Amino acid sequence: MTDHVHTARERDAGPGHAVRVREAVKRYGPVHALAGIDLDVAAGRFLVLLGPSGSGKSTLIRTLAGVERLDDGRIELGGSVISDRRRHLAPERRDLAMVFQDYALWPHLTVAGNVGYALRRRRLAAPEAARRSAEALERVGLGALADRYPHELSGGEQQRVALARAVVARPGLLLFDEPLSNLDADLRERLRVQISTLTRDSGATAVYITHDQSEAFALADVIGVLDRGTLVQLDRPEAVYARPATPFVARFTGLAGELPGRVVATDGDDVVVCVADRRLRSRVVGTVGIGDEVTLAVRPAATTVLPADVPAPHGSLAGTVVDVAYRGRGYDHVVTGPAGTLAAVFDQRSRPRGSTVEIALDPAGCVAYPIAPTRCHTTDVTVVSIAS
Ligand code: ADP
């Protein structure tokens, strides 16, 4: 094995490095920050690791960067082992760059100096280095600010410098540690688009961590969901949305509500669930039979307020509007009925508080999970396999 991962010049024309993680374990005293992670990211793909605080996202990205050592397991980058029980390649030899939540610019260097610094290991002739730095700054819209110091920039501008610094040396792997968390909503959206465009244009493989599900869905080719040091699902965003592998994944990626029900019919990938005397068609994850109790997880997009006298082809629930929130394009309603409560029920028209409404449910946005008989409290995660 070489003692470094291919230089940027060797991979200028090709895609980034494939990442392979096997049985990765990292302990902090009694805490398993990584409890045995297996993960593959194909060359040039954009992986977003999504999970709540404490789920192990930072630990995983820090072990990829090489600033933390694994206790067990292995990491390969571009086919070379960079981390295992005996070997630990130093961060600067890994052909990667990282963008941090707090920007982490050198305060004593100008904008151009910060970006150019990333090229010092590439042994480029000075004019070529200057050209590349200027081009990277132009791409993030900061060509005019090259001579400023970081303290003379806004937070958004500092993060764009950090982005230019990350891509300028064309590393095979880009790591992003919650880079948008310190920015306000409007700026977040614009910078997210820049991150997506620059990363994809560079051809690098990307690993991006966030606790924000909308950011994850917007950016990812592949989403990995972490729960207490374990990777519970690794899939395309569409698959995570349509078939969340566990109730935890469903909750963390956005639900209107969870309703208790009982299976009354099965039909291939679908089941019919009786919820408060209504029959609803739903997808199912896990193995269920007729008579089994299930939890019906409902995505917000699966709910529609039915106009009067319009039948719902796959079933509907009755309820009373208890709250209305204006969202610009229309209104989100909170509706409570005998089955439970559904939030974020969207309609272009506002329905008054206290009015009775009928909510149609689209089976494509409903998932039934078997209720494990050993469940002892409501926050337990029921681990079930994904039906293929
Ligand atoms: P996330 O990035 O998803 O918030 P982390 O990877 O930071 O999660 O943390 C995972 C778990 O490891 C948490 O329980 C956290 O408290 C613990 N942990 C992380 N870093 C350390 C550390 N340096 N010392 C002790 N415990 C740590």
Q: What fraction strand? A: 25-35%
Order of helices and strands: EEEHEEEHHHEHEHEEHHEEEEEEEEEE
Largest sheet: 6 strands, mixed
Say which molecules are bound, naming each kind only once.
adenosine-5'-diphosphate
Number of domains: 2
CATH architecture of the largest domain: 3-Layer(aba) Sandwich
The helix content is: 10-25%
How far the N terminus sits from the C terminus, by CA atoms, comes to: 38 Å
What is the typical, i.e. mean, pLDDT? 90
Number of strands: 20
Just give the CATH class of the largest domain: Alpha Beta
The total of helices stands at: 8
**From the helix content, strand content and strand pairing, which structural class follows?**
alpha+beta
CATH-derived topology of the largest domain: Rossmann fold
Strand order of the largest sheet: 6-7-8-3-9-10
CATH superfamily annotation of the largest domain: P-loop containing nucleotide triphosphate hydrolases
Low-confidence stretches: 6-11, 374-388
| CA gyration radius, whole angstroms | 24 Å
Shape type: globular
Structure, described:
This protein folds into two domains: 8-247, 3-Layer(aba) Sandwich (Rossmann fold); 248-370, no CATH class. Helix content is 21%, strand content 34%. The chain contains eight helices and 20 strands. The two termini are 38 Å apart. The chain is globular. Strand 11 and strand 12 (270-275) form a beta hairpin. The chain has a six-stranded mixed β-sheet with strand order 6-7-8-3-9-10, with helices on both faces. A five-stranded mixed beta barrel has the order 11-12-13-20-14. The chain has a five-stranded antiparallel β-sheet with strand order 15-19-16-17-18, with no helix packed on it. The longest helix has 18 residues, at 185-202. Mean pLDDT is 90; it is low at 6-11 and 374-388. It has 388 residues and is α+β, with helices and mostly antiparallel strands.
